[in-house]
Amino acid sequence: MSDDKNHEAVEPSYLTAKKGLMSWLITVDHKRIGLMYLAATMFFFLVAGLLAIALRTELFTGQQDFMSAQTYNKVFTLHGAIMVFLFIIPSVPAAMGNFVLPLMLGAKDVAFPKLNLLSFYIYCIAAIMLVMTLLLGSLDTGWTFYTPYSKSTGSAVIMATMGAFVAGFSSILTGLNFVVTVHKMRAPGMTWNRMPLMIWALYATALIQIMATPVLAITLFLLIIERTLNIGIFDPAMGGDPVLYQHFFWFYSHPAVYIMILPGFGIISEIITVHSRKHIFGYRAIAMSSVAIAVISFIVWGHHMFVSGQSELAGVVFSFLTFAVAVPTAIKVFSWVATLYGGSIRYTTPMWYGLVFLWTFTIGGLTGVYLGTLSVDVHLHETYFVVAHFHYVMVGGTVVAFLGGLYHWWPKFFGRMYNETAGKISALLVFIGFNMTFLTQFFLGHQGMPRRYYAYLPEYEVMHQVSTIGSWILALGLFTVLGTLVMALKNGERAPANPWKAVSLEWQTASPPIEHNFHMTPRVTGSPYDFPEIDKSAGAHH
Amino acid sequence: MSSNAHDHDEERPWFLAHHFDTVGQQMSSAKLGMWLFACTELLMFSGLFLAYFILRKMYPEMLLTASEELNKTLGGLNTIVLLFSSYTMALGVRAAQTNNKKALERNLIITIVCAFIFLIVKYFEYSAKIHHGLLPGDLFAAAEHGYHLPKYSKVFYGLYFTMTGLHGVHVVVGIGVLTWILIRARRSEFSSQNYVAVENAGIYWHIVDLVWIFLFPLLYLVK
């Protein structure tokens, strides 16, 4: 790989190359667009997170405290819709992926820079629409907008579904851009088998974004038509089929779960190998399992509908296919653990988050197998067990990976190091707070606590209180993250080009990178995980 | 050995964007992007087709009777118009590739005119339906106009208007895209080296045609 240290001092970084607000608003630089996405998604993470804290606080006692049943319904709907459509889906691919993908490929930008900026503004429009439902104030369907209820409840449903519809276009454009970039913009020598695993994960994600999101678009479009023109396609009273809506919705939204988690897998693959100084175990297996997950994700949607009245045969087939997802997922987890084995592990903050991920995601994944089991799901459906399961995957998986990725690439984003001690404290608080909040909810769900209720029977009170206190600790941990990263910008040490001594291309240019990423187009000659220490030792493998 | 990143600007053709190394890379990227976009379009319409097939399976008799009221002649005419416009579009792309500016402009104009003809025919079809109360959902008033259609026929008309309406929106967008290409062609932007925008507009137009090729028999003809 080419080395261009001698130019570094000469050219200004992408942050200082152009100045003024307009230089950001009309930029086509993937790094700046990535940072704008990062700021926007973090903001909505904060908003939806505060809504979650409000929900947990209401649940501290079994009676009504400060929210009516109706308010509670609205708050959990907005929490879900904002988290899913405005935070988790764009967080890793559009924010972090935008920044690192071209750098990791050795490209100067994504294939369609203007489309990239357009997708950011489409995202902003979607965000405004979804937030406007707050003012219209009658969205209480949950983020899934199930018919026929979504047809009869308040008018904010149209605004919210239009918001999700528009957000879908932003997601499609990002996915399309990434697929073309990966196919056409790789640096000389960057063969498919030399791509960092983060790229493989983003590529698999992008494929799902392209193939699943149009179906969501048409579903929400039909729902809007259904509400405005009353065409009856989902309305049993008019001869339509409400279960058809669920099929349509989950045909997108189950693959969308993998849009949310696959990029997280990519981050963990980078963190685990770089911070344990060992070539990733099973490179091809991890790369191919990302693609396998993307493929299988399209044929498992029926496991959301075991009790919705689909045929028994369909239930059995979907249950079996759901188990199949566990295979590529387990291949990843085993490969990460095998990478750690015998590695020279450095307990940096990203590595702490990597280890937290291995713990929490594994619980999330395994409980997914419980829920995929037909008979077990009939018992656990619509209980807190489901809530706990998907929060273990989405928060314990994606958000933890996202935080780890933030610490891992923060020096590259801004050229500043963060405080390691504060970073580790944040990881510890997140780990404790998260497990307190959601481990208890597995037990609550198993005992029969239904989801989406603002009040509950006295026997659930102790566990609910543990869960609520846990959520406060989790919030404290997340504010510690925010504080650590902001302090790093203010008075962090200057970061060297390659603080982790990593081999992938994004670390071979300055921190922060210059506007066109590299002075010379890099030429790739080997794996992104051949660490210098390994090359020296006789037992180097792969 | 490394190739150079952003020097030698004088050797680069004016239409080569800064982040691409060669014209070939830029063209194949644009084409791949367009094909992926085409996939998303087909997947989006596939949802509507699925809804159609499910409705058909639930109420085969209703669908048969209700679809008899659609105007096969006008639908057939529109099919011919769109197929012909796809042909002229293909000729236009060929003209761009062979530096034939005149033929490119002529074929683009014919394609745009065909798109307008399609919309005009559609306008007459829609007005007849509106006039006879063959409308979606609550607006459905066929009985008042002397029709004896089976129960749930309004769901069929809901789907008919949704499918042809969304297709119609794509035709309108197509007119915009082709007009933009025509303006650029007049400015002599295209050549045998730089024609990918014409080709991509062509792919889009063929998709619009392709969707109609499935809509027409399913809605108008299938017994």
UniProtKB/TrEMBL annotation, chain A:
GO terms for biological process: electron transport coupled proton transport; oxidative phosphorylation; respiratory electron transport chain. It is a multi-pass membrane protein. Residues 18-525 form the Cytochrome oxidase subunit I profile domain. One of its GO terms (molecular function) is cytochrome-c oxidase activity. It catalyses: 4 Fe(II)-[cytochrome c] + O2 + 8 H(+)(in) = 4 Fe(III)-[cytochrome c] + 2 H2O + 4 H(+)(out). InterPro entries: Cyt_c_oxase-like_su1_dom, Cyt_c_oxase-like_su1_sf, Cyt_C_Oxase_1, Cyt_c_Oxase_su1_BS, Cyt_c_oxidase_su1_bac. One of its GO terms (cellular component) is plasma membrane. It is found in: Cell membrane; Membrane. Pathway: Energy metabolism; oxidative phosphorylation. It is an enzyme of class 7 (translocase). It holds the Pfam family COX1. The chain crosses the membrane at residues 35-55, 75-105, 117-136, 156-180, 200-225, 245-268, 280-301, 313-339, 351-372, 384-407, 428-449, 469-489. Keywords: Cell membrane, Copper, Electron transport, Heme, Iron, Membrane, Metal-binding, Respiratory chain, Translocase, Transmembrane, Transmembrane helix, Transport. Its EC number is 7.1.1.9. This is Cytochrome c oxidase subunit 1. It comes from Plesiocystis pacifica SIR-1.
UniProtKB/TrEMBL annotation, chain B:
GO terms for cellular component: plasma membrane. GO terms for biological process: aerobic electron transport chain. One of its GO terms (molecular function) is cytochrome-c oxidase activity. Keywords: Membrane, Transmembrane, Transmembrane helix. It is found in: Cell membrane; Membrane. SUPFAM superfamilies: Cytochrome c oxidase subunit III-like. It is a multi-pass membrane protein. It comes from the Bacteria. Residues 31-223 form the Heme-copper oxidase subunit III family profile domain. The chain crosses the membrane at residues 32-55, 76-96, 108-124, 157-183, 203-222. Belongs to the cytochrome c oxidase subunit 3 family. This is Cytochrome C oxidase subunit III. It comes from Plesiocystis pacifica SIR-1.
